[in-house]
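Annex B. Sample input.
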Amino acid sequence: MPNHKDHFPTILIADDIVANRELLTEILSGERYRIVQAEDGDEAMQLLEEGEVDLALLDVMMPGRSGFAVCRAVKSNPDTRLIPVVMVTSLSASEDRVQGIESGADDFLNKPVNKEELLARVRSLLKIKQFTDELEHAENVLFALALSIEAKDPYTEGHCDRLSESSELLAKRLDLSDEERIALRRGGVLHDIGKVAVPDQILLKPGPLTPEERKVMQQHTIVGAGICSPLKSFRSVLPIIRHHHEKIDGSGYPDGLKGDTIPLTARILQIVDIYDALTTDRPYRKAMAHDRAFALMREEVKRGWWDGALVDELEIMVQTTALQN
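Annex B, continued. Sample output.
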């Protein structure tokens, strides 16, 4: 849905020539759109960063920042990258279109602008924008749900943020793909979302769980993957949610996976999760020092539980971060 109060889509028209802005405004104003104008690239960028724009029509040649420069800035910012950008240009050389594509432009219109073509492309891109907004809303609901589960236990405050940050840093250290890094950043927040189905008397129990309670708790990985599975954008996160409690020797849950059959992203989050749990206060013990935590994790590596190479990499990363701080 559009993000402004009257719920009419907001279109930014950026062009240094007044007549061009007025022509586009006249064409679009009859379609129940809210129009904002900018006379140069810097003003356009300011309006885009204010968060009220649903689609931008950018002239290529403007004072200050060019349309290409504005487009690059918009598409490199996570807060604005989903805004459709149409480059309006009198340039026809193929290298100019290539530059526009490389800048992240969603579409092109040639001057003089054809009214029907303009309206058709704007309608199409706004429809896509509505779908992405709805998807983003669904993702945000799941993130909020996951954080509400964390908030139930004061001892886990900040746990998800730490997992997201550290897992992504470790993935970067291991030279994983951007998709895997994003999956780990999201997985840090969502890995325990299935605990929404675990009763509080089990979830918050300070002592050991009974065998029956443990079975209920172990279902959270399956429930969590099920909650997130309808969203295609979370496809890479599902293996993390389902398999972050597997063990190298096959004694983990829910599927008893062994060794490399456990997805690498799940093993990464698992190691970071264990380290964070050991180095923060819990109701039954105080936080361990870094050296003691890694010593314990290596004992468990010998038992066949964790990926020893990942434990080594995490320790180097922690030591490097400590030295930098």
